[in-house]
Amino acid sequence: MKVLLVGATGNLGIRLVAALLTHGHSVVAFVRSSNKLESLLPPSVYRQIAVVQGDATDPVSIKKAILDASCDAVVNTAGNAALPPWGKSDLPAIFHAVLDAVQEAGSDRKKPLRAWFLAGMGVLYYPGSESMLSNYIPIYLEHRQNLHLLKSVPPNTLDWSLLCPSTMTPESSHIDVPTKTSHGKLIANATTLPLWQDSWIKYIPLIGRTLLCAMNAGRYETTLEQNADFIASDLESNESRWSGMTVGVIDASK
Fold it and tell me: Interior CA angle at 39 toward 35 and 43, to 5°?
């Protein structure tokens, strides 16, 4: 696929450049500064991609980049959610702009585009319920409004998925193509976290589920490279098993 990557200079974005190329995709990087992206990538990798400078909060520029390059898919990793419940960041504005651009580009081409967005594990459901994990540990709540936006998208106008990892750490600072990893592939699950460890602790009045969420949280740390590979691998298929879903992941090799 030809993929527009929004946020290519970020920690996940820069690794997605390499992962997408490794999986045979063509990459169009949409960034605020091409100079910054060039400084982050080896020349051998930078020469393999197209670069468009623009503002990630401007849906018109993003849509133009999609249409001008005839992109088949969009991956958005730009922006970081505010941690405290009262916090504000630029993520909602970026998310809204990318979502609008992808929908409008698909409408112009009369075919919905494939798109991966990024959130956090807090928008996944507590196992066996339809209550979000962030109801028990209320952080990064801006992801909730972004998910609400996705779910309000009319049917057949966008083929979206929302990756919801916990903490992501780097395996290496080196960006190589083909990519190399010392970790296994991720195990994924729709709507809830995979391989959740249950406990009697959940029955403690008032705080049981919060304690269980906190106990499980550390088990879901993954690497930036693993998540980049997961998205790039999924885009190899024209039909994704994760369409219209929130996706939780775990590194089962730990």
Answer: 105
CB 94 within 8 A of CB 143: no
Question: Which pair of tokens denotes residue 82?
Answer: 């505010």
Mean pLDDT across the stretch 4-30? Answer: 98
Residues in the chain, how many?
A: 254
Rounded to the nearest integer, the mean pLDDT of the chain is 96
- Alpha-carbon distance of 224 to 56, in angstroms, equals 21
Q: Which DSSP string do the residues of 127-179 spell out, in sequence order?
A: TTSS-BGGGTS---THHHHHHHHHHTSPTTS-EEEEE--S-EE-S-S---SS-
Confidence at residue 132, expressed as pLDDT on a 0 to 100 scale: 98
> How high is the pLDDT of residue 252?
84
- 77-96, pLDDT tens digit by residue? 999 999 999 999 999 999 99
Q: Three-class SS of residue 74?
A: strand
Three-class SS of residue 206? coil
Q: Residue 168 CA to chain centroid, in angstroms? A: 11
Strand pairing category for 245-250 and 159-163: parallel
